[in-house]
Structure formats: structure tokens, C-alpha cells
Amino acid sequence: MLQLARVPCTELKVGRAFVNGASQSRHLCILLESALDIAGKLNLGVVAEGVETLEDWVLLRELGCGEVQGYFVARPMPGDTLLAWWRANQEHLYRLSREGQSALHTVN
Questions:
Q1: Number of domains present in the structure of the chain
Q2: What CATH code is carried by the domain that includes residue 89?
Q3: Which of the residues 11, 33, 49, 55 is marked catalytic?
């Protein structure tokens, strides 16, 4: 919190400890939601790391977090392989997006 007050920044990275399992833990969900709310009030972008399940990914989408990283999306890879990975996985990513939308409608 002190760094947010003292250091000019444009983005908040929410660590794995607050993200992984948040869909199953009331306490983690509250902390995650609070972090996203603070970031929104400070006009900061948010990246959530440690997204490893569809449930956590759907929760983050529901809370308004549009940028995530974690094994649910992809394993870490060298930068020069990203474009090939993107091309090979476009259909899979589209399906995840559609499944996420369906899951959001089911939750809401």
C-alpha cells in the first residue's frame, strides 16, 4: 500500500497468493476484490498472476480483471515462441473465452 502511495505506477500486479484458490476461499475472494477495487479507484491496470483453474479465471473476469497470467492460460515460454503459440492456440483461447462467458451467465 505504501508503494502505491509513494511510487508512480500504472499497473498493479496481484500475486499468486491472493489469486490461486480465491474462487474457493471467502477470505481470498474478499482480499482479491478489495485489491481490484483499490486499483480501479486509482485508475491502475491490473494483472492477476497464478491463475490455474477455470473457476479462478471466471471469478477474476466477474470482478473485472481482464489480464491474467498462469498455467490455466499457458506455461511460461520464451518470447520468440509466443507468436507460434498464439497461432496454434487461437481456437482454444476462443473456446475458453466462450466457456468463461457461459460460466459467468451460470453464476449470475
A1: 1
A2: 3.20.20.450
A3: 49
